[in-house]
Specification:
208 residues; mainly alpha; 68% helix; flat
Length: 208
Amino acid sequence: IIAIITLVFVLYILGGLKLWRLPDDRQGYQKYMLWAIGLIVCAILIVPFGSSDMVYYFNAGKTVLAGVNPFTEMWANNNFFIYPPAVGLGDQYFSYGPVMAYIFTIIYSLSSDSVIVFILLWKIMLLLCVLLCSKLLTILMRASGVEDVKQTSLLYIWILQPLILFEVLGSGHFDVIWIAMILSAMWAAINRKWLIVFPMLAMKKKKK
């Protein structure tokens, strides 16, 4: 297991070094696509040593599904994903908004009460949010008159930046969700879809 974890980290670092110098044309970017995909896969497989947040999300979803109100009742945040286990760690009130409470519960209900499955599903959801942000950024750049080659360059910088790869896909921090909401509100504003703008901004506020 340690060897596999080490290999993932090594591939992660090598992939980053390979993509350090990006080409100046669209065809050059296409040659690096497999490296980019491999780097994303490694980020998803990285064990979140520096963060126990996803275990917190797992326990939060489990708590809500059990009918406990995490905003008014104390609940246990036991972490069996680390060694030695942190039993009874963080009996506390819920520190996020109601939107995230629902999201934690939905992902937990799909995990079959397995923290490993929950973490994988959580990271896949975050990856989808990153891709959604990429699509929205493309639309916004096109609307702003940014040329195609620069659009491609900026998208690579967005997807492959360390904050996205390690903090979001690696450690499972979900700031990318509210980024997607803000970008959605910007897209809706450009298209004068005001019935979408205000719910997106309100959901962002209720998320955290």
